[in-house]
Amino acid sequence: MTVVALLWSWWNERNKKNHCERFLTIDEFQFTVGRHVVEWEAHLKAKQGTNFLQARSWQPPPTDFVKINVDAAFNISSNSGGWGCICRDEEAVVRFAAAGRIANASDALHAETFALLKAVEVADDLGVGRVVFETDCLVLKQALMSTSYDYSRLGYSDDD
Hints:
By secondary structure, the chain is of the alpha+beta class. It has 2 domains: 2-50; 66-145, Ribonuclease H-like superfamily/Ribonuclease H (Nucleotidyltransferase, domain 5), CATH 3.30.420. Helix content is 42%, strand content 21%. It contains 4 helices and 4 strands, in the order H-H-E-E-E-H-E-H. Strands 3-2-1-4 form a 4-stranded mixed beta sheet, with helices on one face. Helix 1 (2-18) packs across helix 2 (26-50). The longest helix is centred in the N-terminal third of the chain and has 25 residues, at 26-50. It is elongated and about 80 Å long. The N and C termini lie far apart (68 Å).
C-alpha cells in the first residue's frame, strides 16, 4: 500500500510542477504518503464489511449426526439442470458426495426439491441415519417447515 501511495503522491507532485503550482516539501510529502496509506487501508477495511455479503461458514452437525448439504442448478431454457449433495460428519470429514442430472424440471424450486429427494435416496441407500439436511433454498425450507406450501401448482385442495 505504501508503494502505491508513494507513486500516487509522486505523480500528483509532478502534475503540480507541470502546472506551475506549489509543490510539497520533503516533510509534507512524507506526511502525505503516510496519510494516504492510513486512509486507504481504513477505506478498504470498511468496504470489506459493507459491500460484500459475508458467506456463512459451514457449521458442523451435532455429535453422532451427519450433515448433508444439498444444492441444484436450473436452466430455464431447457427445463433441465443438475443436483449435488455432500455428506460430512461433525469433524467435517466427507462421508459421501453425489451429483446428477435433472431433466424436465418446471422451475428452480422443483430442481431444489429434486436435489433434496435424491440426497435422501442416496443417504437411505448407503444406510446413513441421523441426518441434518441443509439447503440454500429458502422457499424449499419454508415449504418443508410450514403448511403454507401444502399444495403444489399441480396439486388440489379439498376446497376444489
